[in-house]
Automatic annotation (TrEMBL):
InterPro entries in the record: aa-tRNA-synth_II (IPR006195), aa-tRNA-synth_II/BPL/LPL (IPR045864), Gly-tRNA_synthase/POLG2 (IPR027031), tRNA-synt_gly (IPR002315)
Enzyme Commission code: 6.1.1.14
PANTHER family: DNA POLYMERASE SUBUNIT GAMMA-2, MITOCHONDRIAL (PTHR10745:SF8), GLYCYL-TRNA SYNTHETASE/DNA POLYMERASE SUBUNIT GAMMA-2 (PTHR10745)
Organism: Candidatus Roizmanbacteria bacterium CG03_land_8_20_14_0_80_39_12
Enzyme class, spelled out: ligase
Domain spans labelled Aminoacyl-transfer RNA synthetases class-II family profile: 3-232
GO biological process, one term: glycyl-tRNA aminoacylation
GO cellular component: cytoplasm
Keyword Transcription regulation attributed: no
Protein's recorded name: glycine--tRNA ligase
Superkingdom to which the source organism belongs: Bacteria
């Protein structure tokens, strides 16, 4: 991985972000060739799925949405990672990954924080950094990136940078129905930035807190789902 990162930098594709100020974890800047490559992929996708099709329309929704959107979608309460800290060296990691990496064949998806904490103790799992077996309890951390709207202290309201781009599509479904000549089945496609406040370690541009998404939601008649499923 280090070789790839160094090569991508040397050839002007991708630079570590904020480098002269010590960098920022998991943040990367695209250089000249990186930008051209990224834009080419983006434009080919847009041509394939929007411009060349009769059943797809485009959308570019805002990154900041009313906080109620994320409450209604379940992200405010349910969009979480279970994290655990080493009390000795303060190494922080995802508890599910820690357990699955250390215990062969175990699957922990859907387990509560209490059950995850118990598994870490039961299997005598040690810290990958320092080797000690002294962890905090597992805690839930929300992945939504919070920010504040307003300039007067004490009168600011919490907003979230979008954690996915699909919500903007669902919010505009009725606008699209009312203004575009569409009939079921049809899709709404979108590209843009999304943000997740997650623990990621050394996975280069494959896993970052700020990233580009390209996706469409395809709306169908429920009774025709098999036909549409086959088609795609
Ligand atoms: Zn440790």
């Amino acid at each position: 991985m280090e070789e790839i990162v160094a090569l991508a930098k040397r050839r002007g594709f991708i630079y570590p972000s904020s480098d002269i100020y010590g960098g920022l974890a998991n943040s990367w800047d695209f250089g000249h060739y990186g930008t051209l490559l990224k834009n080419n992929i983006r434009d080919l996708w847009w041509k394939t799925f929007v411009l060349d099709r009769e059943d797809m329309v485009g959308l570019d929704a805002s990154i900041m949405l009313n906080a109620k959107v994320w409450e209604a979608s379940g992200h405010v309460t349910g969009f979480t990672d279970s994290l655990i800290d080493c009390k000795n060296c303060h190494f922080r990691t995802r508890a599910d990954h820690l357990i699955e990496n250390k215990v062969e064949g175990i699957k922990v998806e859907g387990l509560s924080v209490g059950e995850l904490t118990r598994l870490v103790k039961e299997h005598g799992i040690s810290c990958p950094k320092c080797g000690k077996k002294d962890f905090t309890d597992v805690r839930k951390f929300n992945l939504l990136f919070e920010t504040k709207m307003g300039i007067i202290e004490g009168d600011k309201s919490t907003l979230y940078l979008r954690g996915e781009i699909a919500q903007g599509i669902f919010l505009n479904f009725k606008n699209v129905i009312n203004t575009m000549r569409v009939s079921l089945p049809f899709g709404i496609a979108q590209q843009g930035k999304a943000f997740r406040n997650e623990i990621t370690m050394g996975q280069f541009v494959h896993r970052t807190m700020e990233f580009d998404l390209m996706e469409f939601e395809y709306f169908i008649r429920p009774e025709a789902w098999e036909k549409t499923f086959e088609y795609w």
